[in-house]
Amino acid sequence: MIYILVALKAEAQAFIDKKTDAQIIISGMGSQNMQKATQVVVDKMNKDDKIVNVGICAANKNYKIGQLIDGLKEKISCVDEALNDKNRYNIVDMESAGFLEASLHVENKYIFKIVSDHFEPHTVTKDGAKKLIFDKIDEILNLVQNKRDYV
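Above: the chain sequence. Below: its structure as tokens.
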């Protein structure tokens, strides 16, 4: 089983619209909500199950809007609120720390973030977030199912 944890209903809707076989869990925004939701999944996972945190993130202009980020290879700063500070961080999200905390001892874990903005949170819409996720689902599932490194 593949468990996909997202923060937002719009992110989950992308997976529903794509008709994936994965189990979709909406945690709500924030690291604490993600930690709680992830822990529930971790407690019921089997050894061969995979757990994936997928969501949008802000990044500096070195990253393209729509670019897929492997959150286990790139440093993501987890923050408590949307930021406008373009100079302090490279990549930020609001859930990855909670996911990592709860899945610390899980081998089959993944974090994939899609760049939604360049620290301009007012430009992100529900439909925009859904489309960004939808456009990367096949790539994400391929990487997870085949345990290949993201390049």
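The longest helix spans residues 31-44.
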